[in-house]
Amino acid sequence: xxxxxxxxxxxxxxxxxADGPAxxxxxxxxxxxxxxxxxGQIVDVHAPQIGAVVTGRVLVMPVxxxxxxxxxxxxxxxxxxxxxxAIVLPEVDQxxxxxxIVARELYGRICPILQADxxxxxxxRTDDWxxxxxDGSFSVRPGTGDAG
Amino acid sequence: MTRFALxxxxxxxxxxxxxxxRQLAMGIILEMADALGARRLIDVESVHVDGCLAIGQVxxxxxxxxxxxxxxxxxxxxxxxxxxxxxxxxxSGRDAATFDLGKGIMDAxxxxxxxxxxxxxxxxxxxxxxxxxxxxxxxxxxxxxxNSVLGARTxxxxxxxxxxxxxxxxxxxxxxxxxxxxxxxxxxxLTGLTDQLLRSEALYxxxxxxxxxxxxxxxxxxxxxxxxxxxxxLKALGAAAASSGATAMFHAVGxxxxxxxxxxxxxxxxxxxxxxxxxxxxxxxxETLSTRERDQLTGICVGTPHFSLAEFSELRRLxxxxxxxxxxxxxxxTGRETYAELSARGWHAELEDVGVELVVDTCTYxxxxxxxxxxxxMTNSAKWAYYAPMTLGADVTFGSLADCVESAVAGRIERxxxxxxxx
Lengths: 148, 423
Prior knowledge:
The complex is a heterodimer of chains A (148) and B (423). Chain A is an alpha/beta fold.
């Protein structure tokens, strides 16, 4: 997993290409209420990563939880250009997928949603550089920091 | 793109023969069907739409796009809370732009053919889904109630998908639509709780919060709830579990329709996890629901999810005609049907006399109704306690409905700790 630039196989829930540094959450985060649409920051008082900026990051997290408003929050964040560059999950989360699909349909902006193998998912660390391709394959280059 | 053979009627819609709006809706449903690994689509009897809150411009852009492309719902469709109280607009809009956005969204969904219900508790409406029926409901607390208490079948739908289901009447056959996925996977046993606590409405939001946190996405079965448990108590339990976890269904053994016995709830299979729910665990969960416990009381919010008639009856009983401390805001949120019934019974005037302010169409954690200042808001809702620190930046103290009333009368935070002591 830690091999530099090794290509891993994921499943594109919402297809597209993206890259960026990983922001790894080990606890589920509800974007609704948990992410600021003004700053792109995590504002969930229950989240260890409170204050971290989601914008431009590849958000790596367990399947979402809570409010079904999450789709709208993600779509609006993508519309505003403050959303994550992609989201990597170990399971399918249709609520997040919908947000990305609507942003694509209405605004032509792509935020790929990728389902990764749980072992690959576990191996990603915050600040690893992730590149996602249209077919769902992705590479992980180890980064310097490790806050995951 | 789709991996399964479409029925002729769905193929027609996908080709655009029924208009661009339904074509887009069908495309989204099929994309979701693929993501979920579904092999076919099924009809739904009703839809509850959660997309009518003004989260941002996209909340208006999507229904407007559907509307301008000929969109129209084809099954009975109710609407969740919106961002403004149309019956009391003076309570809502702090700025014109937000008000106009909120109103525009509401108008767009009505124009698509949805009903002006504006409630997060559609299960309190006169028409309820029947046992075993397939529905497409959004709003996490409504989803868990429909699956668990009514025995209707819905997945955890969200914004956008809900209106797509309403435009097409179709959803992927996946998740909780499939009987196999409805069986319990975790078991929570209540142990050593007093009868007094088991009867109290204070237990249920706390229990739900704890269960949701520990069970995550798995369907839990709860053993040991009293047979006299009310729908409002189950509502509070489900709403809390859907806030702290991704819970879309629970079984209350001996109470909810798909759990006459634990064995039936488990479908004869062993559970993944078994957890004893002790008084200590509940006390700890109760503490995490409060950001502050001793502070100046700045207001009280109840009715998340929307208050039922039975809850208003209890509220009247608890006040016993006593008035709320002068100027302290006490908001109770409810749906229009319940609101009309309150007026018909003369309870509306009585509650206003006591100092209770009724809020309809929306939820108090969506908009800052209160001048929050530096004080703390009291609530009897685990869901409100969970979300308001994020949506409003509010400090919260959690209490029972009786605590809320006693605090309102006294003008300071009062919590009955007796309930939470051991036997």
